[in-house]
Design goal:
Largest interface: A-B, 58 and 61 residues
Strand order of the largest sheet of chain B: 2-13-12-4-7-9
Helix content of chain A: over 70%
Shape of chain B: flat
Shape of chain A: globular
Number of strands of chain A: 5
Pfam families (chain B): Alph_Pro_TM
Number of domains of chain B: 2
Oligomer: heterodimer
Radius of gyration of chain A: 19 Å
Strand order of the largest sheet of chain A: 1-2
Keywords (chain B): Membrane, Transmembrane, Transmembrane helix
InterPro entries (chain B): CHP02186-rel_TM (IPR019088)
Number of strands of chain B: 13
Number of helices of chain A: 11
Structural class of chain B: alpha+beta
Number of helices of chain B: 6
Strand content of chain B: 35-45%
Organism (chain B): Sphingomonas metalli
CATH superfamily of the largest domain in chain B: Macroglobulin (MG2) domain
Order of helices and strands of chain B: HEEEEEEEHHEHEEEEEHH
Protein name (chain B): TIGR02186 family protein
Largest sheet of chain A: 2 strands, antiparallel
Distance between the termini of chain B: 78 Å
Largest sheet of chain B: 6 strands, mixed
Helix content of chain B: 25-40%
CATH class of the largest domain in chain B: Mainly Beta
CATH topology of the largest domain in chain B: Immunoglobulin-like
Radius of gyration of chain B: 25 Å
CATH architecture of the largest domain in chain B: Sandwich
Order of helices and strands of chain A: EEHHHHHHEEHHHHHE
């Protein structure tokens, strides 16, 4: 079933896009990530222009995170104060990201930068996660109790001024640290069309040292708002949000997310984390190969 | 009818001398509307060759028909990737002021056998004879490399098409050709040019316009995205929040 995308200016098979959204949604429901890091590259592989892909997949992440946020709010899993600080940083980051996007576009290096950032981030996060998950699996196999993780924030975070209390997170730290973290995620959201959950969650645990109970909920809370703002910024600057494409992705992903969330309860979390880590590494390697292999097209055209 | 005959009788001595035929071209669609299921369009270009005297001149070689469909010209920046420190990045670039967004040529015989290089350059017949108007002071060989790169890129994307022998001529007077317009073309005014060529000379030419535009919902969405960005963005966000919320509510009930 072919459908014409009015902003991307090409026709796509609607079923393929819905299934793509569904597959990403399934994974995002299982792992609690937005899934933007999969949607954008997959859309580009399908032939959607990179800018349209990044702009439209941001709104898909918004949709996928909504039901998660509601579920976490109901059981008190969101630290609103921390979330507010992250969102504030995220919004500033979105605008900085928009500026950076335009600059790189003018220089003609946007695609290369996006690819390099992806490779570095996915490789790093995937590596850390795989190592951690494997250790946990090995420990369980040997019958050792899982190692109790010491929850402490990074010494650099402790050194920052203007400390304040974040009751739900059980922290007394400077708001500058989460503000900066939110800012970086905002930049990435704008550049890559991702929610940034897979950066945010590890950073909240290992760098800021938040109580694990509120990490996922607060991360989703920030993702919801920042991707919404990113969609708005894209709609007013790059004008590359394709609402038809976004709707197709959403239909698939919100359904997939619900199925994924149910599947997730049936699998041991270590295996789930390992699977996610391997997937992240696979996507990262694919993008890396795209950088080093001779591209199919040496020339690219942009309107000027 | 009688008036036409009278006119012909008057004009006959004038036209007899040069014996210039006239082309009466037409296209199957004067306007192409892009709607939700648009996957490209098949254009039929057809028409008649009117010879003075009403019949194909005897003893002369049969004439050839060349049909060219062009899209609106675009000002583009062409970038060339180069391997720097192990990865492929955009390096050199060239700017073109007026590259056709779409160019399809169909002919009754391969274009190289119909006209020589000079005529091809004058009438821009063939993808190698396009006037791309580069804005550049680069040496000629670099410009040639970029020009060739652009043509090859567009050809692989199906936007520059050469189709020799796609024009059928019936009894030397009626011709028809089919040109496929892919879904990826930009909207705007397209032109369909028809050339009648004999002995390497263009005897007659005629142009028809074709408007390609988005219609209905597609036109509304594309316009909204361009003109009311903030509102459009708000609708996109509302749509995603709404769909996510509905799915969550349904899932909780099931």
């Amino acid at each position: 079933m072919d459908l014409y995308l009015p902003v991307a200016n090409l026709s796509v098979n609607a079923l393929v896009i819905v299934l793509l959204g569904g597959g990403v949604g399934l994974l995002s429901g299982m792992f609690g990530v937005g899934g933007g890091f999969l949607t954008t590259p997959l859309l580009i592989v399908y032939g959607i222009p990179p800018t349209v892909a990044a702009a439209s997949s941001a709104s898909q992440v918004t949709g996928a995170s909504v039901s998660g946020v509601f579920a976490h709010v109901r059981r008190g899993g969101v630290d609103f104060k921390m979330g507010g600080v992250l969102v504030a940083g995220g919004i500033v980051g979105t605008f900085a990201g928009a500026w950076l996007f335009r600059l790189l576009q003018a220089l003609g290096q946007i695609d290369t930068v996006i690819a390099i950032v992806y490779v570095v981030m996915l490789g790093w996060i995937g590596g850390v996660m795989a190592k951690e998950a494997l250790t946990a699996i090995v420990r369980r196999r040997r019958g050792q109790p899982p190692r109790a993780r010491k929850r402490r924030h990074h010494p650099l975070v402790a050194a920052l001024p203007f400390r304040t209390r974040f009751y739900a997170s059980g922290l007394y730290i400077s708001p500058l640290a989460p503000l900066l973290l939110g800012f970086m995620t905002g930049v990435l959201t704008m550049l890559l069309g991702i929610g940034g959950g897979f950066i945010l969650v590890p950073a909240m645990i290992y760098v800021i040292g938040m109580a694990t109970g509120v990490v996922v909920g607060t991360s989703l809370f920030q993702t919801l708002f920042v991707t919404a703002v990113a969609t708005l910024v894209h709609a007013t600057t790059t004008r590359a949000v394709d609402i038809v494409l976004a709707a197709l992705l959403l239909v698939g992903s919100v359904t997939g997310a619900q199925i994924g969330a149910r599947l997730a309860t049936k699998i041991r979390p270590e295996y789930l984390r390992l699977a996610l880590a391997l997937m992240v590494l696979a996507v990262g390697s694919r993008i890396f190969l795209g950088l080093v292999w001779r591209p199919e097209e040496i020339f690219t055209v942009t309107l000027s | 009818m009688r008036r036409a005959a009278a006119l012909l009788a008057v004009a006959a001595p004038l036209t007899m001398g040069q014996a210039k035929p006239v082309l009466v071209p037409d296209v199957s669609q004067r306007a192409i509307e892009i709607a939700y299921s648009f996957t490209g369009a098949d254009l039929l270009l057809f028409g008649a060759i009117l010879y003075p005297g009403g019949q194909v001149p005897a003893g002369e070689k049969p004439a050839d028909i060349v049909v060219v469909v062009r899209g609106p010209t675009q000002s583009i920046l062409l970038r060339e990737k180069e391997k720097v420190a192990g990865i492929w990045v955009n390096a050199a670039s060239a700017r073109y002021r007026s590259a056709p967004s779409f160019y399809a040529i169909a002919s009754s015989r391969p274009i190289q056998t119909i006209v020589d290089e000079r005529q091809r350059a004058i009438y821009e017949l063939g993808v190698d004879s396009l006037q791309l108007s580069p804005v550049s002071t680069a040496p000629a060989d670099v410009q040639a490399r970029f020009g060739q790169g652009l043509v090859e890129l567009k050809t692989r994307a199906g936007l520059y098409v050469e189709n020799p022998r796609a024009v059928e001529i019936t009894d030397g007077v009626l011709y028809r050709a089919r040109v496929t317009i892919p879904a990826r073309v930009p909207v705007g005014r397209f032109t369909a040019e028809t050339f009648l060529i004999r002995d390497g000379r263009v005897l007659a030419a005629a142009v028809r316009d074709i408007d390609i535009r988005k219609s209905g919902f597609e036109r509304f969405v594309a316009r909204a995205a361009q003109r009311a960005g903030l509102l459009y963005g708000l609708v996109a966000v509302a749509l995603s929040v709404g769909l996510g919320w509905i799915a969550g509510t349904i899932a909780r009930r099931v």
